[in-house]
């Protein structure tokens, strides 16, 4: 048996969804597309996967209590909640998850999932995961490519290589739905993105993976041995703290930061891609939330107390006060207790610049809401 351990990466800050998402209350802990938070949806949508175990969740230590409480609220007892003292990107996070998983089961398969993705179609999502299991058990390192629906310039792309068919020395018998990885491509300009989509040879890079813990750790040791050494030390000298495991701060801070893609997936000869067409969106901007949201007759997405007249193709989100708008088209308006964002939909990628300005002037609005959630209650 190869137990499948979900590894939920919940350490992001989601700055492009400011002012709703903030460092101390990031988007994965917010209800954005359902009556559950994105973290809760990420875990619950795995229900029905065979041989699934309790998840390993990796998060920022300042969000630890909210993360634990949200898991408790959906009756999920994690295998571990590992706290990162500093962010070091996805490769170190996966490394510590692999080390933890191997201490539990030597044949564990890791299913690596960011906690802040939206997936609307569960069956094709499960189908892709189930296909990946057989390849992962044969020591492939699987990445999931999203079948593109538009020439997006905000995503990286993966070019499909040859199909891993029956008769291939490595592919599981009879399975014809995985591909060798020809190359990874950085975010393209619009003209190149259009060519990629028209060719049918490229998928969006989803940031979701599956591989045996032992297999990914072997590749990490081959290509980034310093990272593995630092993570091993951070685990060995870390400590249990209530429901959490704290990585050693000094050891983990010494770990070189890198993504899984750069660290191993672009270098390994064991990589493979499985295409997925499951209504995926990484909800990386307010524009993305407009795209997936339920729209009214004027193609507006309305959240909260909002009054409109002659408003079209817009996203309006109130957390408390009335938003009233006249004559807007293709705009984003988001209200919180201490900040209001107004932006054309085609400029929402620039929200991150506003957050950087807030941070550079040490404005609290980049860090926390006026209402702050603590383990002992709420303060304002």
Task: Point out poorly predicted stretches.
Answer: none
Form type: globular
Q: State the helix count.
A: 11
Helix content: 25-40%
Write structural notes for this entry.
With 380 residues, the chain is an alpha/beta fold. 29% of the residues lie in helices and 27% in strands. It has 11 helices and 21 strands. The strands form 5 sheets. Strands 6-9-7-8-12 form a 5-stranded mixed beta barrel. Strand 20 (372-374) and strand 21 form a beta hairpin. The longest helix has 16 residues, at 122-137. The chain is globular, with a radius of gyration of 21 Å.
Write the layout of secondary structure elements.
Blueprint: E1 4-10, H1 38-44, E2 56-60, H2 64-73, E3 80-84, H3 90-104, E4 109-114, E5 118-119, H4 122-137, E6 141-146, E7 157-163, E8 179-185, H5 190-199, E9 202-212, H6 213-223, H7 225-236, E10 239-241, E11 244-246, H8 249-253, H9 260-265, E12 271-276, E13 280-281, H10 286-292, E14 301-303, E15 306-309, E16 315-318, E17 323-326, E18 331-335, E19 340-344, H11 351-360, E20 372-374, E21 377-379
Parallel strand pairs: 1-2, 1-4, 2-3, 3-11, 6-12, 14-16, 15-17, 16-18
Antiparallel strand pairs: 4-9, 5-13, 6-9, 7-8, 7-9, 8-12, 10-11, 18-19, 20-21
Helix pairs in contact: 3-6, 3-7, 6-7
Keywords:
single chain, 380 residues, alpha/beta, five-stranded mixed barrel, 21 strands, 29% helix
Brief summary of the model shown:
The protein has 380 residues and is α/β, with parallel strands linked by helices.
């Amino acid at each position: 048996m190869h137990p499948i351990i979900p590894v939920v990466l919940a350490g992001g800050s989601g700055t492009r969804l400011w002012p709703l998402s903030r460092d101390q209350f990031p988007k994965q802990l917010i209800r954005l597309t359902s009556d559950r938070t994105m973290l809760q949806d990420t875990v619950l949508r795995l229900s029905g996967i065979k041989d699934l175990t309790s998840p390993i969740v990796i998060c920022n230590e300042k969000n630890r209590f909210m993360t634990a409480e949200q898991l408790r609220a959906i009756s999920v007892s994690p295998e571990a909640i590992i706290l990162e003292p500093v962010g070091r990107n996805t490769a170190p996070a996966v490394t510590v998850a692999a080390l933890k998983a191997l201490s539990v089961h030597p044949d564990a398969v890791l299913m690596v999932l960011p906690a802040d993705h939206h997936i609307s179609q569960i069956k094709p999502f499960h189908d892709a995961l189930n296909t990946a299991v057989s390849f992962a058990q044969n020591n492939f390192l699987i990445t999931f490519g999203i079948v593109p629906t538009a020439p997006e310039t905000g995503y990286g792309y993966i070019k499909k290589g040859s199909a891993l068919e029956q008769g291939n020395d490595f592919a599981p018998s009879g399975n014809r739905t995985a591909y060798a990885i020809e190359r990874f491509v950085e975010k393209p300009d619009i003209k190149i993105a259009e060519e990629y989509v028209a060719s049918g040879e490229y998928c969006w890079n989803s940031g979701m993976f599956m591989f045996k813990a032992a297999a990914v750790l072997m590749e990490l040791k081959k290509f980034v041995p310093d990272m593995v050494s630092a993570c091993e030390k951070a685990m060995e000298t870390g400590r249990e703290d209530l429901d959490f495991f704290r990585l050693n701060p000094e050891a983990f801070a010494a770990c070189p930061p890198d993504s899984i893609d750069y660290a191993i997936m672009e270098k390994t000869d064991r990589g493979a891609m499985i295409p997925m067409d499951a209504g995926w969106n990484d909800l990386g901007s307010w524009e993305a939330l407009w795209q997936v949201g339920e729209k009214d007759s004027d193609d507006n997405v309305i959240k909260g107390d909002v009054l409109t007249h002659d408003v079209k193709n817009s996203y309006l989100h109130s957390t408390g006060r009335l938003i009233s708008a006249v004559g807007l088209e293709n705009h984003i308006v988001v209200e919180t207790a201490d900040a209001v964002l107004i932006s054309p939909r085609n400029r929402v990628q620039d929200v991150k610049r506003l957050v950087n300005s807030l941070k550079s002037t040490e404005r609290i609005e980049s860090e926390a809401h006026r209402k702050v959630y603590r383990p002992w209650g709420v303060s304002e």
